[in-house]
Specification:
This is Histidine kinase. Residues 24-274 form the EAL domain. It comes from Bradyrhizobium manausense. There is one protein chain. 47% of the residues lie in helices and 20% in strands. It is α/β, with parallel strands linked by helices. An eight-stranded mixed β-barrel has the order 1-2-4-5-6-7-8-9, surrounded by four helices. The longest helix has 35 residues, at 2-36. It is globular. The structure holds ligand C2E and magnesium ion (3 copies).
Length: 280
């Protein structure tokens, strides 16, 4: 009996596996179509200068407007896109969209774009970025590229050369989700980052846990010594923001200021060329 129960178990497990595989294949096919059918959208979340409270720019965050499943957040498809290589056309779409959108904003606003480690394996990534800048007319100084530590684990010297090349044309580099990965401090000296983005997990409970304050304060000190700026991501309350300002953080981003919004819902004060065109 136990043997047959075991076999049943195995059968159920097997069916669950193939159902999962099928769902995955469907999702993969859908994602492939999504790119071709332009179902991907880029939403924008502002980041603020902590000192002045002024908006400094927006981070581009991809969403998938699925025909039947509604708006799907990136956590549900970026990993699949990376496994299937679809992240390459997806990433290029986001980059081009973000550069084109930002080119119509007031010129003091930056745009930050996340790049996947998989995109770094493409030999022509520099040309892709350069073409996105050229075709949109966006000044390279207004583009910030966000990468996570996982990019740096592999191909260190090639990535260094690539990053130096981006810097030489004026593009800024941010180390995203700092504190969640291997967080080797040697990355900070080995690679030419302009900015460190402290992961939101350190911001949670900031106002209750003295340890979080100590960590953020040492990241700020370290960044200053290396001539880098610091962004706190995931700022949700004004208490957190006040604390972060006192700790010397340069930029803040989070729901306190705004959730990521579709392009037509972000308010651009000042005489933006884009908004004039929209109003006409
Ligand atoms: P990320 O680059 O670290 O982006 C920040 C994430 O935190 C975003 O989630 C944002 O919506 C969320 N967030 C912002 N403020 C708050 C807050 O106050 N509280 C909380 N709880 N969350 C906040 P989102 O948009 O779901 O994106 C998740 C991740 O997906 C991003 O993390 C990034 O790693 C990845 N991603 C998004 N767009 C792209 C893209 O175009 N390309 C690549 N390669 N990855 C992307
Ligand atoms: Mg990011
Ligand atoms: Mg982040
Ligand atoms: Mg993240």
């Amino acid at each position: 009996r136990s043997k047959s129960a075991g076999r049943n178990c195995f059968t159920i497990y097997d069916e669950a596996m193939s159902a999962e595989l099928e769902a995955r294949n469907t999702l993969e096919g859908d994602l492939r179509d999504a790119i071709a059918l332009c179902q991907l959208e880029v939403h924008y979340q502002p980041f603020m200068d902590a000192g002045t409270g002024a908006r400094r720019g927006f981070e581009a965050l991809v969403r998938w407007r699925h025909p039947t499943r509604g708006l799907i957040p990136p956590d549900q498809f970026i990993a699949l896109a990376e496994e299937t290589g679809l992240i390459v056309p997806l990433g290029e779409f986001v980059l081009r969209r973000a550069c084109a959108d930002a080119a119509a904003w007031p010129s003091d606003l930056m745009v930050a774009v996340n790049l996947s480690p998989i995109q770094f394996k493409e030999a022509d990534l520099f040309d892709v970025i350069n073409a996105a800048l050229r075709d949109s007319g966006l000044s390279p100084q207004r583009l910030e590229i966000e990468i996570t530590e996982s990019v740096l684990l592999e191909r260190g010297t090639e990535n260094l050369a690539f990053m130096e090349r981006l810097k030489s044309i004026g593009v800024e580099l941010a180390l995203d989700d700092f504190g969640t990965g291997y967080s080797s401090l040697s990355y900070l000296t080995a690679f030419p980052f302009d900015k460190i983005k402290i992961d939101k997990s350190f911001i949670r409970n900031l106002t209750h846990q003295p340890r979080s304050s100590a960590i953020i304060s040492s990241i700020v000190t370290l960044a200053r010594g290396l001539d880098m700026s610091v962004t706190a991501e995931g700022v949700e309350t004004s208490e957190e923001f006040e604390r972060l300002k006192a700790l010397g953080v340069n930029f803040a981003q989070g729901y306190l200021f705004s959730r990521p919004l579709p392009i037509d819902q972000i308010e651009l004060d000042g005489p933006a060329e884009g908004s004039q065109r929209d109003a006409a």
